[in-house]
Structures are given as structure tokens and as C-alpha cells.
Fold:
Amino acid sequence: MPSEWERGYDAGYRAAHRSDVRDITTDRGTPAPAPEEKKPRKASAYSKRYGREFRRIAPRFKNKRGGWKKNGYRSAVRAAHKAAKK
Structure:
């Protein structure tokens, strides 16, 4: 006589492989409403000005291979902020 564990395992196995049960993948009812898509935030005039200045100033703080010099990124950011304020 099979043990309680074996009976439970066997019953679960048979239930998982039955074909007479309802297919839950197709019968899902009404779909949920689609969420409204948010518009991307508009860039401020200052952030645009800062971006332009950063791209203009950045080469001064880079080495010949194109990487940042030591402390170069931080210096470029500060210089770009200073230039954008003017």
C-alpha cells in the first residue's frame, strides 16, 4: 500500500497532466485597460544650455586616447555649469 506522500504526489502528477480541465491560458475574461503612456519630460532651457557647454568643453578634459583625464569629468561638469550660467 502506497504511503500518504506517494498518494499525494501521484494525485498531483495526474492532475497536472489531465486534459479535461479548463485551459486557463485562453479563458482570461476581460482584459485590463491599458495604462496611458506618459509623455517624456521637457528639457529645461538651462539643461539644454548646460549640455551644449559640456560637449564644447569636454575635449579639454580628455586625454589623447579619448578617455577622461584624472578628475577630468568632474572638472568638465563644473566648467560646463559655470559656462552655462553666463
